[in-house]
Amino acid sequence: MPPLSPRIRATAAPPIPSVRSWAARYAGQAGPMIDLTQAVPGYPPHPELLARLASLAGSAATAGYGPIDGEPTLREALAADIAQFYAAPVTAADVAITAGCNLGFAMTMAVLAAEGEAVVLPTPWYFNHAMALSMAGIRALPLPCRAGDGFIPDPERLEPLLAAGARALVLVSPNNPTGAVYPAEVIARCAALCRRHGAWLVLDETYRDFLPAVATPPHALFQDPAWRDGIIQLYSFSKAYCVPGHRVGAILAGPGVRAELMKALDTQQICAPRPAQAALAWAVPALAGWRAGNRDLMAGRAAAFRQAAGQLPGWRLESLGAYFAYLRVPEDGPDALAVAEALAVQRGLLGLPGPFFGPARNSGQDRHLRLAFANAALEAISELPGRLAGAG
């Protein structure tokens, strides 16, 4: 066989299929399988959104190519939503629509960094971010975040990495995998450090719709007119609107980035799926109340998970938020990888072990397990103490 790309071969295999393969060895003795591996909304899309998706998918009007940077109606709707959420003057000219947020991240990195350059990823990191950088030949510089700090990045530990020439810092808040929500002052300090060292700050705010309802926005970066010269935001429609299979995301960026981004958009996607864009243009303003209800539903599941975790001797819930719980497995037992496999095979519970969320060596995550509780109804969450007890 002719050789394959060394970059692709050096990139880690997708973790979720790897873990789900263990399920084939589960005999059902603990009850139905509970799959908490992937961040999937545990409820269906709004019925009217489904109806519009079906109608628009059958329309000749959405069958052709669309604008490279997205349908104007969706760009306008999202810009208005962002402007209200962050109390900032954002317009459709700042928005580009992408075929999912993962592709949005990959295209953003193509604009910001070249082969051999470096991008800072706080660890535990979102594994698809690290995989995208690996495929592009961009070095991922880990910024270890400690449980004792609530997995919040420490700006003091960040500065040397930026001073060494990193092209960008990526912050995910609410975080995947830990669920940690970064305080506004930490985000502001990181932004200032990036500006001082000539690096970009990339904010992945995929889960911002599940932040607690408060009077102030999660940060004030977009209230500074100069944000367009140093900050990029990534967003996903998948979680808030329950449409991950339709692959729609967004990039918020200033004109300098957007001019270069159009090259990546045209090459890698041509246009994002048009029926979904048209349906979401309606949904963004029309389903605001429905989204708020789902935020409260997720908060209820988080509270139920916290209560369930409190019933587990030896386990420690070290972080929880948005869709995710990050637990430390008992100290006197096997590591997280072995625990996760045993849970899948013996207890019918699928979760992702911490080593998937850091560098291959010295990740510091070998005692952690991520469970995406958003997937599970309250009845399934109530079963978790019984499934987890004794597994460590």
TrEMBL record:
> What family does this chain come from, according to its entry?
Belongs to the class-I pyridoxal-phosphate-dependent aminotransferase family.
Listed InterPro entries:
Aminotransferase_I/II_large, AspAT/PAT-like, PyrdxlP-dep_Trfase, PyrdxlP-dep_Trfase_major
Q: Which reaction does it catalyse?
A: L-aspartate + 2-oxoglutarate = oxaloacetate + L-glutamate
Tell me what this protein is called.
aspartate transaminase
| Cofactor(s) it depends on | pyridoxal 5'-phosphate
Domain named Aminotransferase class I/classII large: residues: 33-383
Keywords on record: Aminotransferase, Pyridoxal phosphate, Transferase
Q: Which species?
A: Siccirubricoccus deserti
Give the Enzyme Commission number: 2.6.1.1
Q: Which GO terms describe its biological process?
A: amino acid metabolic process
Which NCBIfam families does this chain map to? PRK07550.1
The Swiss-Prot or TrEMBL record annotates one GO molecular function as: pyridoxal phosphate binding
